[in-house]
User: Fold these one by one.
Assistant:
Number 1:
Amino acid sequence: MLRSICWIVSGTRLHGEDLTACSRDEPKPTPSGNCRGRLLVSGTVLIDVHTHVTPPEFPACPDAAAAKRWPCMQCSGEQTTLFSGDKAFRVLDARSWDAERRIADMARSGVSMQLLSPMPELLSYWLPSGAASIVCDTVNDHIAEMVAGHPAYFRGVGAIPLQDVAEAVRAVKGLRSRYGLDGVEIGSNINGKQLGDPEFEPFFAAAESEGIAIFVHAIHPVAKVADMSAQYVSVVLFPVEIAMAAASLLMAGTLERYPRLRIGFSHGAGALPAMLGRLDQGWKRADGFGGRIEIQPSVTARSMFIDGNVYDPVLLRHLACEVAPGRVFAGSDYPYKIMEENIRGLIDRACFSDESRNSIEHGAALAFLNASA
Ligand SMILES: [Zn+2]
């Protein structure tokens, strides 16, 4: 029987690469996780691209200008709490900094390798650039040490002070040579500025020319107002915020100007799948958004990498089969309370073909990191 491929449209090849297909005659997922007819087999190499690190200690605050938001770990009994200035930010444990503890957890959950990234609050865009560089260096040093000590289990991306683009460009050039990292984690906005702002163009140019990966993580949503709870912000605004970051880059034409960028978005790119049809329509009706972009946004979106941290097998399948075939990798948000506890189970419930499953478990991650198995 002729297999019908569900994403035959222009743009199934990007930058000369073959993309992974999902066929319509594969079993379909259901929210309850019943794949209707497929024998589930777990067990290939699984790379978790969305995991965070916080160093166990920080240097002393360098000056009064940084004091209000300077990170500091304070221990009280069994608890270790990260403070930002004099405010408690989050209670943490050894999973945030201890390589051996993480490796034990990985063995239990069937994760073969983690990509380590900074706890987003450590990106420090709100600090003066010099002080932020000290925090970035501290977290980069710790991630580099974990990677160097356990290269079979960890790869890493670091932090740069993107509130100072010239300094950030200098820092990009040292990520690989100084720290042995594969790239950088950046926030979804930089002190309220969208990533498509022309101010950040030199950073994207440097990232492309240096060949580093960029992992964009939701941070301090611009839609937040004072009376919203932290839970509401995390659960409701993060998916809106990360979609805004992706849409900003699509509408600004950044991904057209830097087609070799390897850029990944956290939290399944949030609401982006629901925006793509409207972005395409706006692109048509507004003459390529005022001539800024030539290719329709939903086609360019296929060059983005997206993590599978969505907790929903139907949405995971939609991302992998329709939004960004071959570009969706696994992500858990380890070690935080909201993390996906069973990545393999989530992938099982999405009922992928072996080819699609391999792509999500490790193929897309290796492409994102420009690495081989
Ligand atoms: Zn995260």
Note: The first strand starts at residue 13 and ends at 14.
Number 2:
Amino acid sequence: MALVFAGLCGHGPGFTGRAELADPEPRDALYAGFERLRLALEDAKPDALVVVAAEHFANFFMDNMPAFAIGMADSYEGPIEDPDWLKIEPTSVPGNKDLSRRIVSAVMQDVDVAYAEEWKFDHGIAVPLHFLTPRYDLPVVPANINCQGPPLPPLHRCWAFGEALRRVIDAVPERIALLGTGGISHWPATPDSGKINEAWDREFLERVLNHRRDELLAYTDEDVYRDAGQGGFEMRTYVAVAGATQGAEGELWFYEPIPVFAVGATIAAMNLG
Ligand SMILES: [Fe+2]
């Protein structure tokens, strides 16, 4: 039927796992941003949520790493992380295999996409769902971009992936919500963890929210690695959503560097009109 919602958010495991260590003011403002996004998602009355997420070596590894992959199952287990660490209990999240199959088939017309009938969620999807669909009652179609193991898909292909997703979202009868989730500048699991390049983040978000395609595609992996760390490669998820929402007005609802969460925590939405 149509794209009825499009949002962007981070998925830092600290958002849930290290909540008590954060300064309450920005933490609670982040949570309020998630709550606003949850209400907007519910108001849109979607039949399914397509989540464009970043690989963390949870499902795919260097023996066989797809550039783009889409889950094609009727349910997904997760998160895989220790609940004592992530503070999210493992659960089963509904999928929609038939919808996934139609999305995969249509995206394949434009972008070579892998599919997987077995897919475990990690914090990259589980943290956003914890805040946005806390009852786990909205079917999810997980999509994945290799942001982890170079060579990474070029940014123009991530944009094209978003465009391909949008074409099929507009063609299926269901009401579809789209969420892109990634950290922007961050240096996870390195001695620099906790470092955040706020200026880089804000400039990148400006380009995303205003769909400045040429300026988005002008980033090189070398620039991103230098300025935004290896975690910054997750920018691809936002580039895909920008490609999927051309013409919409983007709005930044929350951005705040929260070092104990190791990212500039971000909540944004695309006003689809
Ligand atoms: Fe991540």
Note: The chain has a mean pLDDT of 97.
Number 3:
Amino acid sequence: MDATTTLKNHNLRVTKIRLAILDALENGHQAKPYAELQATLSDFNRTTLYRTLLALIEKGLIHKALEENGESYYARCGGCTSYAHTHDHIHFKCNDCGTVECLHLSNELGFTLPGVAIDSLEITAKGTCKICNL
Ligand SMILES: [Zn+2]
Ligand SMILES: [Zn+2]
Ligand SMILES: [Zn+2]
């Protein structure tokens, strides 16, 4: 879905910076580190960029895929809303090239714990990605 439609679907005003962030994360399943977003979007004020990222997370358009060594990785959401992030995918980090991806599994991750209501689940897997594995 293109960035403008995504913003409109979430009842958000279409602004340059929102479009720029969504476009930078367009490559569906690949998460990008904050430093890279900052470099790509260097036209924008850093504070504005960070605040906009937080706002987009709150509105269910993007999510933090991983936080490691002080670096945060962000990725686009699929069917999330401003009420809830409803992910059931895992985050995969390649130990060789450092790529972080959102991986959707063929089987749903079903966890049931007696007496516990799970709203969201965060799982990080590490290994070698398809490209490095060739
Ligand atoms: Zn989400
Ligand atoms: Zn790799
Ligand atoms: Zn993800």
Note: The pocket of zinc ion (ligand 2) is lined by residues 94, 96-97, 99, 129, 131-132 (CB under 6 Å).
